[in-house]
Amino acid sequence: MTRTGEQRAGTADEPTRDSPGLGPRGDASLTPKGEARRRALLAGVLTVLEAGGPSAVTHRAVATAAGVPLAAATYYFSSRDDMLRSALRHATATWTRSLDELEQPTLGDLAETLVRYAVVERAAAVAQYEMLLQAVRDPGLHDDAEAWYSSLEHVLARVGVPAERLAVVSLAVDGLIVRMLWRGEPGDVAATAEVLRRVVA
Fold first, then answer.
1. Is the sign of the CA dihedral 158, 160, 163, 168 positive or negative?
2. Distance CA 110, CA 96 (A)
3. Which of 173, 184, 85 is closest to 132 using CA atoms?
4. CA–CA separation, 65 vs 114, rounded Å?
5. Most buried residue among 36, 52, 152, 171 by CB atoms closer than 10 A?
């Protein structure tokens, strides 16, 4: 398919489709510069999602938020759905990585992570929940949505929640995150840790 002038790849800043090691939309091995640009675009998707929801996500809006040329967005992501799916996977990976990095986590550690995730740096969390709703309609996102919930259950198990209570406690923590996003409370680590202690107990 012929690209428009705005969508043409292969500028001085963009790799071409025929560049060594690069597949369509940069989904194979990327150069360091290409990977940095793709990460900037993913962050741009999260920014646009937080401000305007899925309907606001366009190549132009994301490119503007990321501070990159429009051609970069159209090169790495073929459509809005492509950007949204990639954003879910990126947000999920960020979330699971933040939980996996907790060594022998306590409820205080988990509370600190939740406050950072849902209050301080909330764009990824907003995108995560937007994408969970997308997963209701898009079977291709089910595995990614399940990975989010699995990571939550995994860290709760490491905190000390018994296996037979994991499902119920994870539902409660899921609801806590939504409340933190919606109302901004509890908004500090101490208050969040107290809620978690009550839930786990």
1. negative
2. 12
3. 85
4. 25
5. 152
Q: How does DSSP classify residue 23?
A: -
Per-residue pLDDT of 112-157, as tens digits, reads 999 998 998 888 788 788 878 878 888 877 887 888 888 889 889 9
The token pair at 193 is: 């840790």
Helix (H) or strand (E) holding 183: helix 166-183
Q: Residue 59's closest CA among 88, 35, 42, 79?
A: 79
Percent of the chain residues topping a pLDDT of 70: 85
Q: What is the mean pLDDT of the chain?
A: 80
How far is Cα 198 from Cα 157, in angstroms, rounded to an integer?
A: 16
Q: What is the full DSSP assignment across 33-93?
A: HHHHHHHHHHHHHHHHHHHH-GGG--HHHHHHHHTS-HHHHHHH-SSHHHHHHHHHHHHHH
Contact 127, 91 (CB under 8 A): yes
> What does the pLDDT look like over 55-85, one tens digit per residue?
899 999 999 999 999 999 999 999 988 888 8
Structure tokens at 167: 């499902």
- DSSP result, 103-157: SS--HHHHHHHHHIIIIISTHHHHHHHHHHHHHHH-GGGHHHHHHHHHHHHHHHH
What is d(CA 170, CA 49) in angstroms, rounded to the nearest whole number?
A: 25
